[in-house]
Amino acid sequence: MAVKIKLKRLGKIRSPHYRIVVADSRTRRDGRAIEEIGLYHPVQNPSRIEVDSERAQYWLGVGAQPTEPVLAILKLTGDWQKYKGEPAPAPLLVAEPKAARPVFDALGGDDEGKGEAITQKKKAEKKDEAPAESSSASTEA
Question: Does the predicted TM-score (pTM) go above 0.90?
Answer without folding.
Answer: no
